Amino acid sequence: MAKRFLFILLVLALMIWAAGCSDDPTSTAAPENSLSDDFGGYTATNEAPGFGDPILLAAVEGEAEVEDPLLAVPSVAAMVNDVQYGLFHFRAVWGRLEYDSTVTTETDWTGSLTVNAGALIVRRLIRFEPEQDALLPRTDRKLVEWQSVTTVHNDGIAVDLLVPPRFPEYDTSWVVDGTDSTMVIDTIPPEPVTLTFEAGSYSRTFTLNELAQLSEVVTFDDGNAIAFHAVQFYRHACPRGVLAGFWGYDDEGAGIFKGIWFSGFGRVTGFVEGNFGKDDQDRNVFYGKWIDASGQFEGLLRGTWGHRVGVTVSEVAQHRGAGWYAGDIFDASGNEIGALRGHFKSSPFAPGGWFQGRWKLTCPDAGGEPRHNGMGMMNDGI
User: Fold this and answer.
1) Partners of 306 in beta bridges
2) Is the dihedral of CA 40, 329, 210, 200 positive or negative?
3) Verdict on whether the full-model pTM lies above 0.85
């Protein structure tokens, strides 16, 4: 019932937004016909929290922070503070990524996350319903388990992965040849660290190299999907995280998106909104604006997007198509300060479609870290 209530709340919010939010002096609807303007007409100004948008503010209610009890365990707390440990943030959302009120069949996503070395810290539960979904008690620092059932919408989880330093082992032996002997040292590489995700009948194991640039959506024949995203952290490294929200069209057919901006540790730190479509040179472009949780300006967005290769791009298909987006983040002076990448599935209705993705800021003094390290290259896979 909670997911249905949330959707009703979103629909009511959309009705309010469409009917009269333009009269609000804090309204930030993108300027009309702005796809050929610098940054789509968005400017480096402060806004109301969540752009004053009830849809975004309601969506935050589905993201619940978790105080993982393992953080109080001394051995785990030592891992968090140990600079030798690697850090990753992993987010998975499963079910109907686009709300579908016609779905009546339940899908059981009860499952787990398992790492073969290190520890897992739960940071967020996404749209878990108290009466049917639950995070099971933590019994092992390498294991997270949950109960989850979805119908019309989705659930998800966000965790931190702490990876211990891994060193090769040395096997020393002596080879005797007559009166001579030689010491032989065999180097045995450490076992690779892997993260295994299991939900319902689906299972997937990720290597650390995959997690460092993970941005993938797995779709199923029954209309369900799983969106995977992860980011790797470096001590004293550049800020990075994930973003997620709605991607679709307004009543006049203009492409718009709006969503939540998450820190690398899964906390809600801000909001994003923007528009997408074709500019006056027939290029697929998107523009947007990023603000913090209080409405303070953080950055302007600009980039490109595309549909999956082989997908018909008629007007009808575009309004329901899946694809990718890739762009950059700019400061108030128009200087490039970061990048964002992700996937979307559009909808004829603004709050219906979805997008997921990752972001990263560029730090000149990050110890030689590559400019867009870990962001990866976008492709048509989804």
Assistant:
1) 324
2) negative
3) no
Q: What is the pLDDT of residue 81?
A: 83
Distance between CA atoms of 10 and 2, rounded to whole angstroms?
A: 12
Instruction: Report whether 186 contacts 174 (CB < 8 A).
Output: no
Domain boundaries, the chain: 2-61+236-361, 63-167+189-229
CA distance 289 to 317: 27
| pLDDT bucket at 134, cuts 50 / 70 / 90 | very high
Quick one: tokens of 236?
A: 């004293």
- Give residue for tokens 């919408």: 153
Instruction: Answer yes or no: are the C-beta atoms of 130 and 84 closer than 8 Å.
Output: no
- Tell me how far apart the alpha carbons of residues 6 and 14 are, in angstroms, rounded to a whole number: 12
Q: What is the pLDDT of residue 253?
A: 84
User: Nearest 5°: phi and psi at 126?
Assistant: -110, 115
Where b means 16+ CB within 10 Å and e means fewer, 335-346 reads eebbbbbbbbbb
Residue found under tokens 């470096």: 234
Question: pLDDT tens digit string along 43-94?
Answer: 999 999 999 988 888 788 788 889 999 999 999 999 888 878 888 999 999 9
* H or E segment and range at residue 75: helix 74-81
DSSP string, 177-231: ETTEEEEEEEEEPPPPPEEEEEETTEEEEEEHHHHTT-EEEEE-TTS-EEEEEEE
SS3 for 292?
Answer: strand
**Cα–chain-centroid distance for residue 66?**
17
What gap in Å lies between CA 305 and CA 324, rounded to an integer?
6
Contacts of 59 (CB under 8 A, 6+ apart): 10, 245, 246, 259, 260
Look at the alpha carbons of 117, 123, 125, 126 in this order and tell me if their dihedral is positive or negative.
negative
Identify any residues that bridge with 290 across adjacent strands, giving them in sequence order. 272, 299
State how far the Cα of 60 lies from the Cα of 271, in Å rounded to an integer. Answer: 10
d(CA 210, CA 217): 14
**CA neighbours closer than 13 Å in the CB half-sphere of residue 351:** 22
The per-residue pLDDT of the chain, averaged, comes to 80
